[in-house]
Specification:
- 5 copies of one chain form a homopentamer.
- With about 325 residues, chain A is of the alpha+beta class.
- The first copy, chain A, has 2 domains: about 260 residues, 2-Layer Sandwich (Beta Polymerase, domain 2); about 55 residues.
- Helices cover about 60% and strands about 15% of the residues of chain A.
- In chain A, helix 9 packs antiparallel against helix 11.
- Chain A is rod-shaped, with a radius of gyration of 35 Å.
- The two termini of chain A are about 70 Å apart.
- The relative contact order of chain A is 0.09.
- Chains in contact: A-B, A-C, B-D, C-E, D-E.
- At the A-B interface, strand 4, helix 7, helix 9, helix 10 and helix 11 of A face helix 9 of B.
Chain lengths: ~325, ~325, ~325, ~325, ~325
């Protein structure tokens, strides 16, 4: 599905009188100035749609195949002057406390950018509008779009990580609460989601670094500081992932230690309870003996005495347990 | 065993009028054009068969020895202009939930490729057919065969990893189920198989990288993007291995934590059960005392009263256990 | 908020007759000599204040944005000849046993330094006074201020780490004490704080290294030994972090082992206690049997005999437990 | 002790008419041709024997000292044109299931090789015989001896690792058996032995790599493929070490998990046993109560009824435990 | 405190007719020959003493400050042609089983060496005497002193590690003994001491490497083999540290597993003990029932029968526990 396609000249959107599918007309319109370019935005296109574009813009078949099938690792590839880039998009689904993954593929030529988005995260409509409002940036040509897309996607990473931070805080609270909680599954799931985020974030650092130092043909050196900015955010995200992962590991260990402390406390409670039942049973056993000569048995208040003995000794035992910190 | 041998000219299989063993004739037939080459496919050849080929194609004795004995690490070696490559093949045996390992050795010269396969995985017949259907690729000469073999083998890695992913998902489900399961052995076996996959996948990355950047004599620079594609799949496989391994570790830890939680729950259940037996025993003990003056003993309904006391106190205790979350 | 702004010539503070906000006048005053420069010190400025300065000194918008929002990673960036540096400040809050984080941003030009401080740690007033007292150092120009700030901040790191060392020593003592303590939460919190310190310390090593070898334009080679000194302190801090972290991990493991030893000891105590109750109960049960012919029942002192048997056997059992090391 | 000393010319052993100690005569005999050399083989020589040789062949005192004292790390050192190499030998002692360590030191000059062996592993007599049978290889001069020694020693590594693999398989079987086994000590010992193997194997890789690429004076480039072969075996050994170590770690973890599962099973068995004793005790307690009006007590078959009740309730309880999977 | 100061010419100590404090006279005396130099040895000097020396020999203030305050990391720094080096000294205190740390600082110029020792380890008097006995070495000038100091200090590392090896062996024995031991604290302390040793050893490797390859001005290339020798010892020490650390980790894990096995054994013993008490209690309960018709109660030997039943069943149960391996 074609979301939008437009021609930009010196940072401004040109009014073009043709169909969004008419790529040749679009390209022709973009031939006017130095930094003129076409930006075609696609959402989960079928093979047919992409083939048309591939033909019109001369894209490499291996890259096109990757863009159709998605499920690539983040990467940046050079095909005879043109760039092909894959970025993972992430978003947090509140209902499930889960991180979902999409993908954006970019084909970058001298006079065109084609963005192919899969999955519902990191919509680019907003990025396009913001970019169209920053004429100075947009006038740099295709690299401005690359920057805008990367910036949008990486900001979404940070938002996802903030949500995960909240989840980790909740886990932490739960682990160190007095309540009997089973946090293993929660921690496991969070670790699994962090691993997903890591797979999106870490491989993107190398392309950003290369953009920053101006080592990629088609991305001008002046764009360096902008990509360094995105790279900084990526570094923050990477650091945040490692911190959260390590906190989860520590929280898990603390959780296991907590279970063992609980076990110990419970065992001591149980043993105290058992003693409180066994001691009066012993007393009852004593007065159940059949000796001919047991003075208490003849007492008028012997029964009361026995009950008092049972209750009294139990209370004393209970107090002793409490005082000694056993219970 | 010679599976197939053929001469290819400009991407097409030449009809050659000679025996599959007649290597000299085959080589002679391949001398016509620039990218002409012979492809000899062997399956677990004995030393004798390989010696013939070694003589005909001038292979290095150390490489031939490796190809006979198999059980090498994946590697790429240069012998006086010729290449020798070893790749591990993997396949998943459904009946045993096990990963099996084979090996393909390739001798690559300017005008020949010899593939020596050990074990039943990654048959190359299919790869040969597909390659013969892609004349443009095949016309690149021996490097096309190297690409086809690598591609076939690495795709099989991804399939094996998908099967292992399913196994890991099952383990995960089992670990977090309420049932009493002992998942240690399963996790251990999966870790062991992942280690086997890792040994096949990781050492192959370096040869792919060198093919991609065109640093290997005999593999033209134009073939780079194809090997980069294989390298991407390898990277996905490597990432998948690390993820699965780390998930298994986490699952194992969660399993151990689960055992401890289970232990704690069981202990509390046991203690409650014991209390439900000991409390009526105490009551029976009380009414088994031999005091002369115990009014209840004389009651007409004393016995019923005692039984009611036993049952009642037990029920009350049970309710209290339930309510307090102990049980 | 502007804390202080001054012009320095050959290591001495110039009396300048203008408002602290009058940046153009300050800059003009600093145009006299070779190493003359302006040092403007800001504390949590609002966007407006910074914009004025950015205009006056020609700062890059991306850098200014970073300085307003704070929460950056430590970094050193080159913008068209000017330097932008971010350093994390740390301080230890005794009341909470917690480490707090602030930030100092530096804009360094040929004839100016602008320091932007966020958070209450590492005040620079003291650093400025000390620096003004060391004319020889100050006469090196802006790089002297960079050195002074780095030195102040890194010394604060070492102080924070000393406080954390004390906390770790306390944890250690608690873990190996005989008392029943639950140190998980404490260890977890300390690990979390160490992670925060690590995030401040580690990324600063690379800028220090670059200052030391004279690889940063605007920082003269002669300043190398001074930054090497700061780098040494950073290395000590980094080593200290790793040591503390690893000690905490070991302490945690010892803590868990301690819980298990405790569990075992408690279980043996409990079992001994149970035996001390069950043995006399058994004896009472024996003399509660209803055989017609039980000689002891007829004895005058039978009851005493039974009580003696109960107490005696319990005492003997207790002694045996003690002697055998069970209890 | 001098084991053997000989002069080799063009790959053949020269008949020399002098004492094995007469180094000057040997050296003189080896001065004839280009690749002629002396090979002196020593076994645990005393300082005196080595001093003679050092004088005759001009060995560096630091190297000689190392060769006397043994207990060096594997290393390759260049002393003014001559090479000094230390290799660890390993052998497996079946009786103790233990790995023992020896050492071979090599002094390599243009026209001599001196091998100094310590410990009983990797005897070189066999290696000398095999080498003497391969004239083509031996004719390369001293580097052929280096190759033969390395090859022999590294093959012994692989044999030791196969033995350890068998031990690990046994541990694995023991860990996952139903029997109550204590595998900690076994696993610990194996880990310790693997560490010893690792200390022998890993530092040898760098010298092999340098031999392979021809970066060592005195080792000709043509010998590269041979040393690459040894290097491959070393790589297999290194991989095997890591795999075994990681398997042992996993096995240990599984062992600990197994103890906990066992603990849980035992606890449930114990609790069931206790219930089977406590329930009839309760029934006996009931019929031991002294109420005047307890009809069962008067029944002719009351006793049998009580016994039936005890046995019956116990059997029912037992059946319930079995059915519910508790026991 | 000045321990000794002397002038060396061509490897021999010159008789100098001046006070040990008269640095200018000493320096003047050392101006005669090419490798003449002064060696001043100090022990924990105060700031004043060092200032005199700094003035006389032209030392850099930052280096002097480091030498006064000690507590540096091992390092090698170049100050305008002069070298400053810090080495940690270690010694083992038998009474406490503890490792103590000192420090030696060296100032190395073309014609002087100043050694500043802090703490009681690695006295240099012995090193000076030994060096004075090796004229050939000493004639190399200041670098000979650097070698002698490094050699002495590193040999002390190896001695300390041997002591720690003994401690680890003891821990090992304790962990795998049958006795109930609590080895956590011991293991923790040893790990802590190993960390201290590591901090001394690891950073020294880089300076040794640089000395070895002759990359440090003032240390001649010919001294390389000597420093390589020290570097080898350092490598042995580093390897030993890693091995001991990893053994301690494994021993700790085995210790924890041992506690759990102990727990399980104890629990089974306890349960057996409880059964041996509960079974006769049940029998006593049976014969304590009040049925009118219980034949055994009327038997002449009923009481004996009951006692026999109790003892007999307990013995049988005990035998069964033993036979089934439960106890």
């Amino acid at each position: 599905m074609i979301v939008d396609s437009a021609v930009y000249r010196q940072g401004e959107r040109l009014p073009v009188d043709c169909n969004v599918h008419d790529y040749d007309a679009l390209r022709a319109a973009a031939e006017g100035g130095e930094h003129d370019f076409v930006w075609v935005g696609l959402f989960e296109p079928d093979e047919h749609e992409l083939d048309d574009i591939a033909t019109a813009f001369g894209l490499h078949p291996l890259a096109v195949e990757d863009a159709v099938h998605a499920h690539q690792r983040p990467k940046l590839e050079l095909y005879e002057g043109n760039l092909f880039m894959t970025i993972k998009t992430l978003w947090y689904v509140d209902e499930d406390d889960a991180v979902e993954t999409g993908e954006i593929n970019l084909f970058i030529g001298e006079d065109f950018v084609i963005t192919v988005r899969h999955g519902h995260g990191s919509e680019l409509k907003q990025a396009r509008h913001e970019l169209e409002a920053r004429q100075a940036v947009l006038s740099h040509g295709p690299s401005a779009v690359v920057y805008a897309v990367c910036d949008t996607v990486v900001d979404a990473y940070l938002e996802v990580l903030e949500e995960l931070q909240i989840d980790v805080d909740q886990v932490e609270e739960s682990v160190f609460s007095e309540k009997r909680t089973n946090d293993s599954a929660r921690i496991y799931t969070l670790k699994r989601e962090l691993a997903e985020v890591r797979r999106a974030v870490l491989p993107l650092r190398e392309p950003m670094r290369r953009f920053t130092v101006g080592a990629v043909p088609g991305i001008p050196v002046e764009a360096g500081p902008f990509f360094r900015d995105v790279g900084d955010h990526l570094a923050v995200a990477a650091e945040s992932i490692e911190t959260l992962d390590s906190l989860l590991s520590s929280a898990f260990e603390a959780h296991v230690a907590g279970i063992q402390v609980q076990q110990n406390n419970d065992m001591r409670k149980i043993s105290a309870g058992a003693a409180l039942l066994l001691l009066p049973t012993l007393i009852a056993g004593v007065y159940g003996m059949n000796f001919d000569h047991m003075p208490e048995l003849r007492w008028q208040l012997g029964y009361l005495w026995a009950l008092f003995l049972m209750v009294g000794s139990s209370v004393a035992l209970w107090a002793w347990f409490k005082k000694s910190g056993w219970m």
